[in-house]
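Support case: user asked for a sample of complex input and structure output to validate their parser. Sending the pair below.
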Amino acid sequence: MRLVTHPGWRKPHPPSGGFVHSPPRLRAVTLKRMKQVRSLGYGLALSALVVVQIPVALVSILGVLVSTVLGMVFLLEPSVRLIRFMAGIDRHLMRRWVGVEIPTPYRPKPPALVRARDGYYHHKGKRYRTATSPHIDRMLAWVITDPATWRELVWIILDPWTRSVLALGPTFVIGWGIWLTLSEGLYWGLALSVAAFFLAPAALKNYGLYALALLGPTANTQLVGQVNRLNQVRADQLDLQAAELRRIERDLHDGAQARMVAVGMTIGAAEQLVDNDPNAAKALLAKARESSATALQELRQLVRGIHPPVLAERGLGDAIRALALDSPLKVKVHADLLERPESPVESAVYFAVSELLTNASRYEASKVTIDISRRGRALRVTVTDDGPGGAKATPGGGLAGIERRLAAFDGVLALSSPPGGGTTATIEVLDALPGDEELEPVNALPKGWRGLVYALCWSLCWLPLFPQGLVATFMLIFQPDERSWFLALYMPPPYQWPTVAFMIALGATMLATGIRLNPTPGKSPGVC
Amino acid sequence: MKVVLAEDLHLLREGLVHLLRAHEFDVVAAVESGPELLTALVTHRPDVAVVDVRLPPTFTDEGLQAALAARKQVPGLPVLVLSQHVQQLYARELLADGTGGIGYLLKDRVFNTEQFIDAVRRVAGGGTAMDPDVIAKLMVSNARNEPIARLTPREREVLELMAEGRSNAAIGQRLFLSESAVGKHTASIFGKLDLAPSDDDNRRVLAVLAYLNGR
């Protein structure tokens, strides 16, 4: 199972006090221009895809209609799959070109039906000879109950329009402005072109946020995902705990317990001999002492595996220093930690570092640097070695064990290990340290104007987007006599299409702004 | 010889008091917590203190901290620290001021009465008594270092005993060697490790430990 990452995790923070490369001013300006040009290019490419999108949309909408209206239900799942395929392409492009990460919102696919012992397939209290019909039923239920299906249907209907406006819009306005200037002699057209040029990245970004609103997970699906993940973590932890207890039981049973029995027997024998043969009794007592010392040694070893004493006495920094001193490698430890995290977190991080150190010495590293610090309320430990690199987490291996152990505390292990370039392992545990609660208003409602804009955007975004944008488009195409309340139809002819485009852009921007102002940051992952 | 004892387990405390009294030590105070220990050390100024690392009220390293604090107020106050586990980290902290009179042993060493009493006497006399486990860990973590790798197995044995705080005579007894043979070995070790030779047992130990720790 993939561990959850959080914004800011992927980007390493620049080392404080380090040398930061600053390009000359001129270059910065060209780069900025480049960004606008790039946005225009991506916008053009995205809108070119409409050519593919529209036929696919028509086919899949037809499929959904046929399956629901005519009852050909078996067509629903393939149609939905087609829509999901298109949405998948878009998620990918949004990440690559627009920089908006859109997580996949689908609920997990139901597992395949297994034939029961009586030779039938059981489904909803009925028995089936073959798996086909219950399988279709389950797939349908899976597709229909997933809100993502219906959101994507809305998306594939709306998207060709919004995309044409927001992605193609800036290029169109630039061209229109130039045309106004050259053939109509209106010089403000030039200003329009320049404005559109500079607004191109913002338009593309807004398109990305709009796509996030429809293609991303809702709060509900996010919760479902989280519950699944937590279930998995809990099962893992219980397994881990049970295995640990079994190991301790076995160690005690075969080790210290057996030795104490031997000590008791030896002392008993000495007791019997003490009057008749004092010398033999003495020898037996010496043996008993030796046995008890060995038992102590074993208990000490065991205790160190359960909870290292230095950790209990001194906390994480000194426990890792003690670990470093016992290691045959040259280990430098920088610990910058004033508060102590919770004891289970300390323990998990300690054993993680211990495992990483063992790995480093196994792969012939000679120098290791360990850095322990806090970032906000998160605890971060980096272990860097100069070994051969190429380390990977294999299932069931030591690194996978670390990940499992850390997962219980929302902790993650990130590994950077290019072949031949040493290994850097970063452990980060969120909310491990006590901190200022004010800094993270997770569930706080937006205050002041933020709240107002948020409410306005969400409640009114449909108005320009739908009636004034999409419906007006149809009105313009079919030219009916009735102008009703569609603003675009009241404009003089050269401004009718721009008005429609403006309306759609406005609506999409409002929607995107609403998402961006979302008071719970957790609900809009990937918004950079 | 005046002794202050700190140990929170009643049975073990009584046992130690009994053991020390049987060897003609004068146990002036037997306390069971960190703050009590610090007061006892500063008021009684004993010839040696026998201290458990983990003590109430926090059950962390109260004993060690109290001993270090007392040595700040009474420089060179001999302290023998007992623990269920030994750490190079703690050994370093104890030896940091370089004045000697430090012992750091596993609690099991109490089983061997003679050696334990010998260690208490050595510490009281301003010498050093390091647990073989600490030394073994030091040797392991330095095993790859060039000069240590050049030592012969016999020399390494001598080095380990030397680091524990034993005199040439005691090392000879342990390894069944004559004192002069041990002297030759120590001279060779000091040569290979680039250390100034020394006859004073305590300075010898500190030199070896400083060398190993500094790696």
